[in-house]
Amino acid sequence: MKNLEPSIYRQRLIIEGHYQIQADGDSIRNYLNQLSKELSMRIFSGPYSWPPDQWDNPEVQLHELNGFVAWTESGCHVYAWRTCRFFTSDIYSCKPFDVEQVVAFTKKFFDSPDIVHTAI
Question: 41, 55, 49, 9: which is closest to 105 by C-alpha?
Fold first, then answer.
């Protein structure tokens, strides 16, 4: 992708895989909190998740769980699908970070047997 504005540093990382953990609102918020610490990012809003409770809540008719945290340095969205136990973590930062460190952390957190990633 052509860098249209070289004066602004930005780094993106998309991580996907299947998960073996018990995914719910608490685990998604926990991932986002721990990821923030792992990257030394400063949280200014969140982390949030929807639905905020377990998926077995009868009032929740969703197949996807999502979460978000806003950092002073940018943020992260994470999505999880219960039907196929698949997740995506989409990280955007205006501060440099170690891609391999984040991929290893995410693989361990989600107990993923088949994680893949792309960095921009």
Answer: 41
